[in-house]
Amino acid sequence: MKNTELATKDLIALNAELTELLKTSFKLRMQKGTQQLTNTSQLGKTKRDIARVKTFITQKSVQK
């Protein structure tokens, strides 16, 4: 996920993206717990994406 993509989205789209990332994070954690996750780097990437989306949500809500 690129910063330029997130900068063009509005708050509703960002919240939807955050929800989707949180679901993905949960699924990855469950896969890791059951030893089904082969690429564990996905967890870190998803965490960074969540943080990035939360940062843009905060920036956009402060601007209003």
UniProtKB/TrEMBL annotation:
A GO BP annotation: translation
GO CC list: ribonucleoprotein complex; ribosome
Signal peptide: none
Transport found in the keyword field: no
Alphabetical list of InterPro entries matching this protein: Ribosomal_uL29, Ribosomal_uL29_CS, Ribosomal_uL29_sf
Listed Pfam families: Ribosomal_L29 (PF00831)
GO molecular function: structural constituent of ribosome
UniProtKB keywords: Ribonucleoprotein, Ribosomal protein
Domain of life: Bacteria
HAMAP family cross-referenced by the UniProt entry: Ribosomal_uL29
Family statement drawn from the similarity comment of this UniProt entry: Belongs to the universal ribosomal protein uL29 family.
Protein name: Large ribosomal subunit protein uL29
